[in-house]
Amino acid sequence: MEWLFLVTGLFSAALLPVLAPTGFEPKALLYYALMVLFAEIVLAYGVLSYAKYRNAKLRYLLSRAIVSWETERPLPKRLFLPYLVSLLFGILLTVLMRINGMDFLTTLLLSLAAAFSLLGWMLMAQKRILRALADAPSFVLAHNGMVNAGKAEVFNGTSRGVIKAGEADGNLCLTVLRGKKTEELLLPIPDDKRQAVTDFLTDMKEYFDGKD
User: pLDDT category, 179, cuts 50, 70, 90?
Assistant: First the structure.
């Protein structure tokens, strides 16, 4: 699907020289083609770099994992954020170009080209992020972060982190601080992970006892 949006974006951009009332001189056409290609490369680099960063953070947490196992994964949701962002981007670009006096045809085609291209690259980035999360354990507790409920987060030890951990009724009980809010997590411990959890809780208690 993402390739369809990318092709649609390029097609919209390619229509401008064909439909332009005054036409394009050869030099202007070459300049326009180079600008479209440059914008496409910049857009792809920016969006895919974000996916690369998210996946690098996930790999980093996996490399520093203390305990990990499979939990019940949340049902996959249709993520509409790329569609919303590309729509708003297209609207904003339309407004800016009209304010700067561009004609309706140029505004329409360039806005469509930008919006569809952004949507295609965002969907591609989203697919890479979701694929990396699907290949990782659904729950990972690392030395300085956690993967849970389809999200990977790195703790800073001050405003974000695990402030309390324990075991009760076969569950790993975690109190996670995020800014000024805390969240209580209860995670059923698989039988083959009980010793690893016990070792983690012992190490954590010894650490805080020694810190005092």
Answer: confident
